[in-house]
## 1
Amino acid sequence: MSNLFCNAPFCQNTRNPNHAWCSTHRWEREKYKIKVYKEVLPYWCLKKCSVHGFLKSNEVYVYPNKKHKVCLQCREANRPIYDPIKGKEYNDRHSDRRKDRRLKKRYKISIDAFQALLSHQNNSCALCNISIEDHQKRKGSNHWFAVDHCHITGKIRGLLCIKCNMGLGYFNDDIKLLKKVIKYIGLNK
């Protein structure tokens, strides 16, 4: 049996042994009445850059959303240079808005409700009573207190520092286990 590839130039599709063309090119020949395929790629399948003209397939950058195709040289030339100072300024300007969006998405409360809850707790952790200023000075702590909530009902219990929040998380909010911990600490004091 001879070559079972399509007879159209540059086509690597397999063909039916009874036909000379693959199904795509058979359909194309019937629809557009194509008699002969040339040895060059058709005009409609070439990518064109407004600056650099026609491009080869390895010269085209396809954005991840697959809607825009750009010449690699133009992409590199138009790529913005990262400025860490501008990035920090942007983050400082938009941190409250970002925090508000996150609170609304995760816990269904606004930043105002968060601030009211914090002032109700005297600007301190609900368990260990560390102030928010001391919390921010701790190495590796977040700028904000963590929102403690019931994972079953979603009800917000209060605001905790990072250590108290992680401690509750490690014990899986299990009251029996926490009572055992209290008893253990009391016995070994």
Note: The chain has three domains: 1-45, 51-79, 84-187.
## 2
Amino acid sequence: MAKATAANKTNASELAFEIRESAIAGKGAFALRPIKKGERLIEYTGERIPHPVADERYDDDTMEEHHTFLFTVSSRTVIDASHGGNESRFINHSCDPNCESEIEGGRVYIFALRDIKQGEELAYDYAYERSGDETEKEEMQYRCRCGAANCRGSIMEPMADFLKRKRAIARKKAAARAEKAKKTTRKKSAAKKSSAKKSAVKKSPAKKSSAKKSAAPPKKKSSTKQSRAKKKSRR
């Protein structure tokens, strides 16, 4: 488990934003200067922990509000910015974001999604993945207060995105099952062919090896008349 180090701390004088009170939630990040689209603003840092540890630390069932300092990097790793994190943990959620998060080589960075004016609050879409069985209490815990005209009322992913992801997972599982079924069919077919060959070998009569003696060519009888004739001609 990797602990956050001094390297995770950001020099505030190098940041393009400052932290102050936010109308969205608690504290927020506000641009100190104009920021260009595509500019990398900061790395999201903190303690890297496995999911079970994150679940032990933050139990949604006992919390009135959700915990927004956790960032899922992969199916195994979560970054807990409340332990050794930097200013990136104060960037709030918005349903109409001006920033976005990107994972590069297991590290998380925040980029400007569009040009941002000085004094504008930075925000990106948290889009927490749904499980599909959220309770009314959980919906309340993850409600959104961004105030955007297109606010969906939740910092969880849009229901349409969840359903799309669910269908994609179902297709992937179905394809895996079909491929497994094909392999099983091929194995059974190969086994049947092998069994049929063995059965055919057992049923076929054994061939007797008959060593045929090669008949010797008939000996030519020497003609006595010819021999006598030759003898006579020599005289």
Note: The domain at 6-162 is CATH 2.170.270.10 (Beta-clip-like).
